[in-house]
Amino acid sequence: MKPVNWRGVDLNLLVAFAALMETRSVTRAAEKLSIGQSAMSHNLSRLRTLLDDPLFHRQGNEMQPTARAFELEPVITALLDTIATDVLTPVSFEPTQYSGPVRIGLTDYAELVFAPALFDVFREQAPQCQLSCRPVDRINYREALKNDQVDVVLGAVETEDPVLLMEELYTEKHVCLFDPESTGLNAPLSLTDYTKTPHALVTVDGQLSSPVDNTLKSLGCNRQVVMGSQRFLTVRHLLSGRNLICTVAELMAKLDMFNDKLAISATPIDVSNFVIRQIWHKKNATSAKNLWIRQTIDKTVRNQVQDLRAR
Could you cite one Gene Ontology molecular function of this protein (predicted)? Predict the structure, then answer.
């Protein structure tokens, strides 16, 4: 088999061939494809060269196909149909028929606040799917996306990596959480209340200080951090019945999963907000499944935020 000169192969020539077979006329084929008659004649000339056959010969007012043209007709028709249906038609995705996993990388905060709501919505839209929540942090989430371990990452993360795309969902603020009975405090807390009471700290990296301490220092104040944990659940359980304050994300403080009597107060100092984003790999930007996952996360998160903030 001799090598194929692919540079001479043009999909439009196959379309022209199909039109000529259907109309048996250069003029009518040109009209069908909305091109000039001279352009169609040029296409026929190129087809004859490419396929090394006259393909059509004039008989009266019609162009009659050669034996080779009749042989090629079903092959070219099937090829054009395949291109139209499998290549040029966007791939559809039907959640109700999907039975695979939905893999979301979640920071500790995002999993606690959103995992139950995400489970309910994904299972409602895709009853046969499985929700896989993978713990990620600000360092390892990139690897999880690039190694195709998750479809989307959700949390207080951001990226400048050119192969990753992101969407901001909302901005979260901080509040103070404490046990009024054990601390003897009431909302709103004063700066004196805040600095004289021992603090528990939710710390991602194990450090027992945060930017809050820098702000206090600039005000000529300081606080005493007596305990730190990566887990908000641990800190929240610790606050009940103890003389402690913790500065936490507002939505975490407002979750209704705890049967305690902790109080919420605005912080008496400025504490930087943080942005919750979803991030996905650029290669999945046009994937129908990935788009469905992102749209579902977007709507679910925004609804959950609105509900919690209204409490």
Answer: DNA-binding transcription factor activity
